[in-house]
Amino acid sequence: MRDENKYALLIDAENVSSKYIGIVTKEAQSLGNITIRRIYGDWTATAKNSWKDSLLENSLSPIQQYSYTVGKNSSDSAMIIDAMDILYTNDVDGFIIVSSDSDFTKLAMRLRESGKRVIGMGESKTPTPFVRACEQFKTLDVLYKNHHPVQKNSVVERTRRQEIKCVPAEKALLPGGQSKDAQPITNLRAIKEMVISLLDENSDEDGWMYLSELGNMIQRMYSDFDCRNYGFAKFGKLIESFPELQTRKDDSSNGITKIVLVRKRED
Predict the structure, then answer these.
(1) What's the pLDDT tens digit per position in 55-89?
(2) CATH at 93
(3) Which of 64, 73, 148, 219 lies at 20 to 30 Å from 252 by C-alpha?
(4) pTM for the predicted model, two decimal places
(5) Which residues of 97-112 are buried (b: 16+ CB within 10 A; e: fewer)?
(6) What is the number of structural domains in the chain?
(7) Is residue 220 in a domain?
(8) Exposure string (b/e) for 154-192, b if CB count within 10 Å is 16 or more?
(9) Which of 95, 120, 146 is where one domain is finished?
(10) Domain span including residue 257
């Protein structure tokens, strides 16, 4: 059996809320074996108290980084230095960088140049250069919103509406602290347009294309693509939601596995 890929998980606590830790660890563990788990921040600051329970529960090693300058994220340089040390001294197959800061763009590019996988995680506000520099990017506030839907008639929702009335619209928050405007970085219209374009360019003479091949192409083109961002558990369900497309299932050569194909719907 093939050995699991090994990853280094590096979290910028100055730039990511502790409420996302459940999503971060679940997504990280789905990738492989997390052999290094480090989280960076100024742990003398009271704002970091929300992280304390998460450190123990998720076996995270806190790295102290004092804030020498007010308003400047002090964790960036420490994470970058550690990442390069890990690159040259540890046997890992990839890095998981958790931050919404564009300062890690060059680091992601350098790690990929060295043949390492780079998985980014951050909020939808993350600048595009860092998102695109990663092989994959998980949009934490969107995944969080989809995992914690707000019930319209709940006490939480009524409280939320009252809070929104008391603050400027651009600062209004949903439960958990994410922006009410948390949206996928790449919108669904762009995904649909690219899907149709890829079908035009890569389908067979009858217009059919393997669903798995199409999914791989979309993932390579949009590192932040995740069908869960749009409310679908599987890529096939997302494709089936497009009225312009149709799918077909065929038996594979072993008669057990189902092969799914997709094409543009004929008029």
Answers:
(1) 888 989 999 887 665 545 566 888 999 999 999 99
(2) 3.40.50.1010
(3) 219
(4) 0.80
(5) bbbbbebbbebbebbb
(6) 2
(7) yes
(8) eeeeeebeeeeeeeeeeebebbbebbeebebbbeeeebb
(9) 146
(10) 188-264
